[in-house]
Each structure stands twice: as C-alpha cells, then as structure tokens.
Amino acid sequence: MNQLFRLKEHGVTVKQELLAGMTSFFTVAYILVVNPAILADTGMPYSYALLATVLATAAGCFFIGLWGNAPMVLTPGMGINAFFTYTLVIGFGLSWQQGLAAVLLAGLIFFISAITPFAAKLSGAVPDSLKHGITVGVGIFLSFIGLQKGGLIAADEETFVTLGNLAAPHALLTLFGLTATLILFVRGIKGSFLLGIAASSAAAYLFGIHNDNGGESVTYSGYTSLWTAADFSGVLQLSFWTAVFSLTIIIMFESMGLLHGMLPDRSKFSRSYQATALSALSCGFLGTSPTIPTVESAAGIAEGGRTGLTAVVTGMLFLGAIVFAPVFTAVPDGAIAPVLIIVGGLMVQQIKHIRFHDMSEWFPAYLIIGLIPLTYSIADGIAFGFIAYPILKIALGSPRAVSPLMYIISGLFLLNYVLLSMI
C-alpha cells in the first residue's frame, strides 16, 4: 500500500484512507438511485442503467486512484446525465444507442486532448466567467428537473409552467424529503443525500406512494449487449455532431474546473485529468452518460483522504452495492427530486466567481445561465454565451482579449445554427 500510493510521503495511514473512502461512498451513493432513474427516461432498461452506473463509477475510481493517485470519486455527472437524456436523446431525437455513440466519440476526443498539450490550450482559451456560467446554468436546470419530477411545478398552457398540486401525494413526499435532506445537509451529517432518500422512501412505503415507473424487477441478463450497443447510424446527421461537440465541451470543462478546485495536491492534476478522460471514454462501452469528478469527493478529502487509496476503496464499495440493487427500483421520484434540487443549488454557488463589474464578462455568462433551463438544452445555452462573448469584446475594441481558439469555438457554434436553419 505504501509503495503503490506513497502513504508515508502524504502523511496518512491505511486506516485514515479507508475511512475517507467509506465517507466518500456514503456521500455519493445516491447516484445509484438518481442516475438510473434519469437514464431510464431515454428508454434504456433500468436494470442495465443501474449496473452501468455501478461499473462506470467503480472503473472511474480505480482509474483516478491507481493512475492519478488522487482521492477523487468519478461518477456519471449530475447535469451531464440530464443533458444526455433530455437534450441528446429527447431533444435532438437520437435513440439512447445513438446517444452512447456520441458518448464514445466525445470521450475519445476528451482522451486525446488530455494526453496532448491541447488540454492546457483549451483551458486557457475559454474565459472563467463562461466556465462558471455553465456550472450555474446546469445547476438551475438540474433543480428544474427535480421540481418537475417531484410534482412541485407542472406544465401550463398559458404560462408554460406553474405551481404543481402541493396536496398531491408525490408533491408532499418531495416537500418532506427536501426538508429532511436539507436539515441533514446543513448539520453536516455524512451521507445526508442517501439518508434523505432512505427517509423519503420509508415514508412512501408507509403511506402507499408507489414508484411511477412501476419499480421493475432487476435483472442483469443481457447487459453485455450494451458493450456493443453504440449506434453510429446518425453520423451523417448534423444533430449527432452537435451532440458530440456539446457533450465534449461540457465534460472537458466540468472535469477541468472540478479537478482544479478540489485536488488537495495540484501536481496530480495532469494524471488525474487523463484518468478522468479515460473513465469518460469507457462510459460509452459500459452504457451510461460520462463520468466526471464529483463535488462529493470533498467529503472524503475533509475526512483526511490524500491518496488514490481513498478512490479505490470507494470503487470497491460501489461494486459491493450490486447486491442491494433490488432496493433501488422501489425508490419513487419524490425521493429522488430533493437531491436534484439541492445539488443544483450547490452548483449555483459558482455564480460568485463571475466578474459582475464587467458586462462583457457577465452578460454572456448570464445568457448561458438563463437559456440552459429556459430552452431545456445545455447545448443551446452554452452556444449563445460562447457566441455573445467575442461579439461584446469586439464591440468594446478589445478583440485581442479573445483567444484565437475561442473565436474558432464560437464560430463553430454559430455555423451550427446557420446549418440547422437550412435543414
């Protein structure tokens, strides 16, 4: 252990790393409930989505633990899973198999960039205000989906969206779960999300509130068909390549920002970034939306995790969770919704890093933040912000404030809309 993870060099013990790994697991284990529920909306079998979530998370933790020696957890990203389901599949009209093909190509581009100098160039090309704007916009979008799933808001013919029926059982369950989870979270209880889901599920059972999806039985028979399920029949469609481009941008910038902000040792960034890219690539084979470093990794780090042993322990615990898979199918949407709402709120905190004294910085970020939830598309929100940024800089007489690579990215987004208007 000491040789592999250099424990003495980091001033930690095996016991300390084990505790940190367990803490990380219980903090992020809610993904085993939430991610399959979101992926199932694409038509993907719930059982397959659940097993894919387990395997992708375990593999990601092993990659970053053994290659990056970092105490980070890689799971299918919250927000990215929503992008996969509600934008790529439902919005762009792709099948979930074509969506997996987009994940494969996006992961491949991500991986190639991670092992070349391009990663550093891309990181420097995109302004921080836009990166933070993406995180905030995705956070609001995630909360919006949670409010929908929980029945707290509903569609309306006149106003498009309105307050849901708060007397309905699922809405009451969501309010109960939101209150309980918030209390646990603000009091710093480890595993607060998982405990909140458990409390809501118990309440649903007691009051006869059933899973809207029927709580299908879990069977992994035939899961290996997902390994070759990626469908590249859409490669001649503009919407397919728009999906690939948008997904690549999101996973690269999300991963870059999270690693920069959370790694206890910045010298581990390069190898950790490469491990993250490899993990994202593997998701296209395993059958889930891409993995990224999770903010809940902070719990394990706060518990003293400093090496990759923390990540490996978390990965092993995820593999063991397969035994309890039948429990996850009984979790109703009203128990999942509070987690989406709270995680979305946590992501919105990044708004404090946007430079509001400079309109050429904050307004493009504002377009991203507003248009992601209002268009129900992460890709469209990003596109409008990226197009507006160089326009405002040029208008201010500061064209050199925009990097050449940023001009190329913005031009590609603009070209995408021109081509779409011609279809």
Describe this structure in words.
- The chain is mainly alpha-helical and 423 residues long.
- The chain has one domain (2-354).
- It is 66% helix and 3% strand.
- The chain has 20 helices and 4 strands.
- It has helices spanning 2-5, 7-10, 14-28, 31-40, 46-66, 80-89, 96-114, 118-125, 128-149, 169-186, 192-206, 238-262, 269-286, 297-302, 308-320, 325-328, 333-348, 359-374, 378-395, 404-422, and strands at residues 74-76, 153-156, 160-163, 291-293.
- The strands form 2 sheets. Strands 1-4 form a two-stranded antiparallel sheet. It has a two-stranded antiparallel sheet with strand order 2-3.
- Strand 2 and strand 3 (160-163) form a beta hairpin.
- Helix 18 (359-374) runs antiparallel to helix 19 (378-395).
- The termini are far apart.
Compile the SSE list and pairings.
Elements: H1 2-5, H2 7-10, H3 14-28, H4 31-40, H5 46-66, E1 74-76, H6 80-89, H7 96-114, H8 118-125, H9 128-149, E2 153-156, E3 160-163, H10 169-186, H11 192-206, H12 238-262, H13 269-286, E4 291-293, H14 297-302, H15 308-320, H16 325-328, H17 333-348, H18 359-374, H19 378-395, H20 404-422
Antiparallel strand pairs: 1-4, 2-3
Shape by Cα distribution: globular
The secondary structure category is mainly alpha
Unreliable stretches: none
Report the total helices: 20
Strand content: under 5%
End-to-end Cα distance, whole Å, is: 58 Å
What's the structural domain tally?
Answer: 1
The tally of beta strands, per DSSP, is: 4
Mean pLDDT: 88
Following the backbone from N to C, one meets helices and strands in this order, namely HHHHHEHHHHEEHHHHEHHHHHHH
Largest sheet: 2 strands, antiparallel
User: Which range best describes the helical content: under 10%, 10-25%, 25-40%, 40-55%, 55-70% or over 70%?
Assistant: 55-70%
